[in-house]
Every structure is written in structure tokens, then in C-alpha cells.
Design a protein that fits this description.
The complex is a heterodimer of chains A (113) and B (114). Chain A is an all-beta fold and 113 residues long. Chain A has no helices and eleven strands. In chain A, strands 2, 4, 5, 6, 9, 10 and 11 form a seven-stranded mixed sheet that branches. The chains are: A mainly beta (113), B mainly beta (114).
Chain lengths: 113, 114
């Protein structure tokens, strides 16, 4: 158990809909990262937050957005969903922004039908 | 652009043999190189990491080597066991705008045959 929690574990929704994925980092970790993993694909970095502020953006679509709240939990919002958005979405946390081990949550499996 | 190449994509070894997975990174500013193991249905788990000021690091049956000049780093697993079967990812950190991005390789599916 990494100490990072993600909800829900599974999510099935229709095209055009909007969903919110939630992540709680390990106790004491200020940095939260979001990744997308499509079937048999590697991990694609989406976005990073540090202590409530956006710090880095990766290959995140404009239909996707995220935020980190004062209690350090983070939410990833996916809107106007398309079939191709079906994937595993992982959240990871680390102590700080300098290169440091990341701890991954169990992921949310999103299926868009 | 920033890139991490990982080889091979699949690897089958007999139990007790060694396994080697290799990664190459493109940006010489990268200075931290973690390796993750992902079992089916789970999130990636850090198994070992190395920083750029070190050439080799070992933890029991697992070792990582780094060649900064060639921008190569490798994962070595000795005396493989069936429970080592999983997908392994390498990563390199890239400094950007006051923080660091993690660039992951495409993964290696390791099968240890009993």
C-alpha cells in the first residue's frame, strides 16, 4: 500500500459526459501528479500540482482540467468524453518538486462507451 | 524533444536466470532515474532508483547502472523468480520551470518461466 488513495476504482460512462477523479496523496506529500495509461501503453504525464499550484503540464487535453485543494487532495476533471479517453488514470505523490520518488495510487479505470 | 526509450518490450527468462532491461534518455539535464514495477491491476511501485552522481546501486537481487556519457541506464534482476513477472518502467526526470517532469519509458513485460 503506497498511501495514495484514488476514487472511484472503476468508472463507466457515455461519450460526451463529464467525470471527476479524486486523489488523496500520502500524508506529508505536497506534490501530486496525474498520468494516463492506455491499454498496453506507457505512462503519459498529464499535469502536476504542488501545494495547490499548477507546476507542470504534459500532454493534457483542453477538455481535461485538474486542481489541488487546500487539504492537498486533487481532482482530475474529464469533460466531453470520447471513446479514446478510456484508460487507467493514475495519481502519484511525492514530498517535493525536486527529483524524488513518486508513490502511485491504485488507479481509476475509466471506460467510455 | 524529451524522450526515454526502453528495450526490450517483452522479455522471457527461465527462473533463476538474470534479466536486463535497458533505457536511453535524450536530455543530459536529467538527474534522477527511478524504476517501477507494475503488477496486473495495480499502480506502479518504485523498486529502485539512482541519481546522476552515482554509477551503480544495488538492492538484494536488483541493481541499476547509469552511464551518463552514453545517457544509458539499465535494470538488472538476478536469480529471477516467478513473482518478478510484471511490467517494468524506467523513467528520467527533466527539470522544467522550477519543477521536474517524469518521462517514462514504454515498459517491458517480463515473464519468468518456472
Amino acid at each position: 500500500d503506497s498511501g495514495v488513495t484514488q476514487t472511484p476504482k472503476h468508472l463507466i460512462t457515455a461519450t460526451g459526459q463529464r467525470v471527476t477523479l479524486r486523489c488523496s496523496p500520502r500524508s506529508g506529500d505536497l506534490s501530486v501528479y496525474w498520468y494516463q495509461q492506455s491499454l498496453d501503453q506507457g505512462l503519459q504525464f498529464l499535469i502536476q500540482y504542488y501545494n495547490g499550484e499548477e507546476r507542470a503540464k504534459g500532454n493534457i487535453l483542453e477538455r481535461f482540467s485538474a486542481q489541488q485543494f487546500p487539504d492537498l487532495h486533487s481532482e482530475l476533471n474529464l469533460s466531453s468524453l470520447e471513446l479514446g479517453d478510456s484508460a487507467l488514470y493514475f495519481c502519484a505523490s511525492s514530498v517535493e518538486t525536486s527529483p524524488h520518488e513518486q508513490y502511485f495510487g491504485p488507479g481509476t479505470r475509466l471506460t467510455v462507451t | 524533444g524529451e524522450n526515454v526509450e526502453q528495450h526490450p518490450s517483452t522479455l522471457s527468462v527461465q527462473e533463476g536466470d538474470s534479466a536486463v532491461i535497458k533505457c536511453t534518455y535524450s536530455d543530459s539535464a536529467s538527474n534522477y532515474f527511478p524504476w517501477y514495477k507494475q503488477e496486473l491491476g495495480k499502480g506502479p511501485q518504485l523498486i529502485i532508483d539512482i541519481r546522476s552522481n552515482v554509477g551503480e546501486k544495488k538492492d538484494q537481487r536488483i541493481a541499476v547502472t547509469l552511464n551518463k556519457t552514453a545517457k544509458h541506464f539499465s535494470l538488472h534482476i538476478t536469480e529471477t523468480q516467478p513473482e518478478d513477472s510484471a511490467v517494468y518502467f524506467c523513467a528520467a526526470t527533466l527539470p522544467t520551470s522550477g519543477t521536474y517532469k517524469y518521462i517514462f519509458g514504454t515498459g517491458t513485460r517480463l515473464k519468468v518461466l518456472a
